[in-house]
Write a structure and sequence with these properties.
Blueprint lengths: L4 H19 L8 H8 L3 H17 L1 H29 L7 H18 L2 H9 L4 H22 L5 H4 L4 H22 L20 H30 L6 H10 L4 H7 L8 H19 L4 H21 L1 H5 L5 H30 L7 H14 L13
Helix pairs in contact: 1-6, 1-7, 1-9, 3-5, 3-10, 3-16, 4-5, 4-6, 4-9, 4-16, 6-7, 7-11, 7-14, 10-11, 10-13, 10-14, 10-16, 10-17, 11-14, 13-14, 13-17, 16-17
Length: 390
């Protein structure tokens, strides 16, 4: 079957929405040295600043499912993306620590209530092309993680903002606002053949969802922890000039997952994607902290690729595993557990760094998470097609 004009529009909206889910969150790591010095943050605060929105992805995932049940998918997307744009721009207003963390909190809520809507869109719009739609949506997320880390410093947004990190953060919200308007105008209010349900509370007895959420949380913890601690780690080891290329490669390498999945489709239908990713994650983090000089630039893309591979596998699961009308509920359960794990582990890592003064220990929890991810993935049951697809 050929893709129709409507299909292409929907794929474009999925791609733009995926970009919006990470664009404002990942604009922070390249600016951490500036924010750190101006607002006098310690490493725990740095960890909380980067992983705080991640905690909100956990706390607000279930309310996001409720919002979808009440407003519909389009309404939830417009409200959520609008919040991301507004509060993402307000983070530097002041500037002061209370404003920075409060606006970051509200921006994270916007991301959290938006994210469960996209697996529902994938299932509603492309029930027989879930792999294609998931690839487009996940590619948008990965681009949203790559753009701000690569183009904020030293060329791009920060120079245009005359070196002011506050305006640099606000600039990324313009793209989110434009996408929110596009989705609000172009997305239909109701989808043909959709199954409307008022059920929104996740079924916490669904063992598969719990296992998927915890396993994916380990990969997310390693990823967000690396984004949080690499800038100060390189700064303190006399490699400040490597911060931008290291972060750019960490996030940019994630885009290689698309050709990898195209060459080896079994990555999306078996446990090999999770287990292989976990092994690579552990090795990359060890290499990143133990290799001197340009070693960080070499190992960062390896780490980014491995965490993204696990993420793409997870994104394809709710539309394939959940019963009709239950995609948002299952997604909310997975995201709650995933991002709760991804918040706690970097926070522990920052506390270890503060307590010991040794930057190496900040990466130890991420290495342990990779080992736990491989062990947990052994119990997953991953189908190769949608359950009860229309």
């Amino acid at each position: 079957m050929r893709l129709t004009r409507t299909d292409w529009v929907r794929l474009l909206l999925l791609w733009l929405g995926g970009i919006d889910l990470r664009l404002t969150m990942l604009a922070v790591p390249p600016l951490i040295p500036l924010i750190h010095r101006e607002l006098h943050l310690d490493e725990k605060a740095v960890g909380a600043l980067v992983s705080g929105p991640v905690l909100l992805l956990a706390i607000a995932a279930v309310p996001g499912s409720l919002l979808i049940a009440k407003l519909g998918v389009r309404g939830a997307l417009v409200v959520g993306l609008g919040s991301v744009a507004v509060f993402g721009a307000l983070r530097g207003f002041g500037p002061s620590q209370p404003v920075l963390f409060s606006a970051t909190f509200l921006m994270g809520v916007g991301v959290a209530v938006t994210q469960p809507a996209f697996p529902s869109l994938v299932r509603e719009w492309f029930p027989r092309r879930i792999a294609i739609a998931t690839a487009v949506y996940s590619n948008g997320i990965l681009i949203g993680e790559t753009l701000p880390t690569a183009l904020t410093t030293p060329v791009g947004v920060l120079p245009l903002a005359h070196g002011d990190w506050r305006w640099a953060l606000a600039s990324w919200s313009v793209l989110v606002l434009a996408s929110a308007v596009a989705i609000g105008v172009a997305a239909p209010a109701r989808f043909a053949g959709s199954k409307v349900t008022s059920r929104w509370w996740p079924d916490w007895r669904h063992g598969q969802a719990i296992r998927i959420g915890i396993v994916m949380g380990m990969a997310s913890a390693a990823y967000f922890g690396a984004n949080a601690f690499i800038p100060d780690f390189l700064d303190q080891t006399g490699r400040h000039n490597l911060i931008s290329p290291t972060l750019g490669l960490l996030n940019g390498a994630q885009l290689l997952t698309a050709p990898a999945v195209a060459l080896w489709p079994r990555l999306l239908t078996g446990r090999a994607g999770f287990i292989g990713s976990a092994a690579i994650m552990a090795a990359a983090q060890l290499g990143l902290v133990l290799t001197p000089g340009f070693g960080a630039v070499v190992w960062a893309p390896v780490l980014g690729f491995s965490t993204a591979l696990a993420f793409v596998v997870v994104l394809s699961l709710p539309p394939r595993v959940a019963p009709p009308g239950g995609v948002a509920r299952m997604s909310a359960a997975i995201f709650t557990l995933q991002y709760a794990t991804a918040f706690v582990i970097p926070l522990i890592a920052g506390a270890l760094w503060d307590a010991t003064g040794k930057a190496l220990l900040a990466f130890l929890p991420g290495i342990a998470a990779a080992v736990a991810m491989a062990w947990g993935a052994m119990s997953l049951r991953i189908p190769d097609r949608v359950q009860n697809a229309p």
